[in-house]
Amino acid sequence: MKNTTTFFVLLLLVIVLSTTGCKDTNKNSDQINKNIAGELVVPDNLKWSERMLLSEIERVPKASMLDFVKKPRWSYTNGLVLSAAIKVYEETNKHSYYDYIYTYANEMIDSTGTIQTYKLSNQNLDMIKSGDVLLYLYAKTKEERFLIAIETLNSQLESQPKTSEGGYWHKKVYPNQMWLDGLYMAEPFHTHYAKEYITDSIKQEQIYNDVVLQFDLIQKHSRDEKSGLLYHGWDESKEQKWANKETGNSPNFWSRAMGWYGMALVDVLDYLPQNHPGRERLIAYLNQLAEALIKFQDESGLWYQVIDQGNRKGNYLEASGSAMFTYTYAKGVHKGYLPEKYLENAEKAYSGIIKNLISVEENGIVNLNQVCGVAGLGGNPYRDGSYDYYVNEIIRSNDPKGTGPFILASIELNK
Description:
The chain is mainly alpha-helical and 415 residues long. The protein has one domain (44-412): Alpha/alpha barrel (Glycosyltransferase). The protein has helices at 2-38, 48-59, 76-92, 95-108, 131-141, 144-159, 180-197, 201-222, 255-268, 279-294, 319-334, 342-356, 387-392, 400-412, and strands spanning 177-179, 233-235, 358-360, 366-368, 371-372, 395-396. The strands form three sheets. It has a two-stranded antiparallel sheet. Strands 3-4 form a two-stranded antiparallel sheet. Helix 8 (201-222) runs parallel beside helix 10 (279-294) and helix 9 runs parallel beside helix 11 (319-334). It is globular.
């Protein structure tokens, strides 16, 4: 009898525990479903601009670690994404976005104004881009260390090596070379700095003239008259293996290089005075670029990695260049630099990005796919600028060189 009683007690205990376990499992399941349905990491009722910024913050909680790096660094990709974050913050007034921006500068600029990981002696134009973030933050905080860092970056531009006509070398290690990338990295900062921080009108005019000269030289040396497209790089010495021995140009038209150039034009015009004689030339360059790019816009609305060879094996519709062109067209129209007709191209491009290149995870995280990770010229191992080189560089999702422009394009189109 005692054994029978013990058996029934144990059986009852098992039943109770099993029932309790089932209830917990159902509860957990309900909670998971609720999270998916209504408590997403990135809510799906926000604009794409905010959804992508939130996704970037979730993926990379410290902006100093953007671009898949293992250690904090000062570089252009940080400035690109944070410049976009500034636009989202100003639209939403959500302080967490400001914190993301400020924390980067707070981490990378020490109490003496020294920029961590930055070397002025490298004379690398890429390093100027994050200065845009400092210009924004100093205006809000008046922290002296930010101003000191701004002055350091400006001093680089004062001493940057130049071609015989006054064009900035892209980097000290790339002598005699101008790249389209460099105009976006340096010229919006330089123009903004001159407008806000130079009180000597003669010196201010010199900077404005120098900024416009960079665009004049690119148009002179890098633009293909037949297609209207611009080559990625130009070597004045014509000594590089990638350089055409007659023109000095690299051999192919890379979409992101022209994306940098287009964004540089529309952003510099924010600060170049209305009465500056170079302003109308820059607007003309922008119109030439806009007209040329339309010829190569795919029926999907996107552009190929090597922009004029869409039917060639290995080529692909690339996200960063497509986002940059979208931003350039949209801002160009909204600012009155481009005819209204180009807004249709911007909308078509944006729809193409959403349809073909955006994916959303169950938790709401937004991904931008098919981004070229990196592309350059020369260096070690040597990058020859060939078609095969461009289409075989790494392709990845959520590269900041794509997510930053996507946020900018989204803001410009109110998406």
